[in-house]
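Write out the 3D structure for:
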Amino acid sequence: MRRAAVTEKVSYIGVNDRTTHLFESMWPLPYGVSYNSYLVVGEERAAIIDGVEASNALRQIDHIREVLGEGRQPDYLVINHMEPDHSGAIALLRQAFPDITIVGNAQTLAMVRGFYGVEGNTLAVKDGDTLPLGQTTTLRFHLTPMVHWPETMMTYLEEEKVLFSGDAFGCFGALNGAVIDSDMDTDRFFPEMERYYSNIVGKYGKFVQRALAKLDGVEIGTVCSTHGPVWRKRISEVVSLYDRLSRYEPLDNGVAIIYGSMYGNTARLAETAAGTLAEAGVREIEVFNAAVTDLSYILSAVFRHRGLVIAAPTYSDGLFPPVAAAVEAIARRNVANREVMLMGTHTWAHHATNEMKRVLEPCSFSFAAEPVIAKQAPGAAELEQTRAAALALASRLNS
């Protein structure tokens, strides 16, 4: 990635990753991902804001030297988030710039030692502390724990109203030349932002809300996240999206249908529900076979839609494993405020919908109808019950 000017004092020194297939070894990256890093150059001192993944460290170091020129080295490395896709370069940065001071809160500095064995020449900061880089260049630190690790914080460049937000307001997708949102078409990043949030941050909604409340009243002209575009033109949309997602507020009145089917019987119930919902006027319907669809996309749809249909057979006195994984992931993220319909099939003993209800019990879900249960192949009565339940769900969604 080329270096680029974000403001008069801020340069982008991040890199693109178009080769990693799975983020955190779990989440697909069909459009790649960027690891964003920034260099703030004040009148007297310069600070790197966040690092990059270890294999890209030398490229980041080259960018730093290009910006600062011969004979000048960065004075500080500010670490907003210690996840290794941002902190992996720490050891190499310390080798390249031996006098650099590592800046972070107490938990950050403990993790620096734990992950990389790096200590000494560090500066511990607390919530609200400032770090001057010159007479008109001041960094202020806002601790935002559990967004989405316990050490996370944000750094604010007061004079230029730039917020370095860590993983908050980030998204999947590499940058294709331009860095700032006003210089590119950013529509494609918003679905990837929904997927990033639901996959990575989804469990921590209440902490995101606390972070947003802490930033209330802070004038922000530019948001520099660690993944995705630099936001300037569409800041209000990005913040609104994170606000709604962290409130577990659906983005539309559509339906995510998640099913698993070994021999087609449960699939028939799922397709019947989908057809009935469409006939009843529900426009946004996504149907996922959990056995073949990556969980990443299922979770994104669950966060997006107000309606949720789950259908699965009983398997080994429990729930069909691919659907069980989806149900457990939904519950683990504390998803709430959804209208739900459950369906299950079995051959001799029914457990599927009971297991769904057990796992989903902590979620604030409203059930549109009693679960549909079909023994062996669904007959006319079960199909009619499916249609009735889907109509009840549609009525709630359309009201």
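The radius of gyration is 24 Å.
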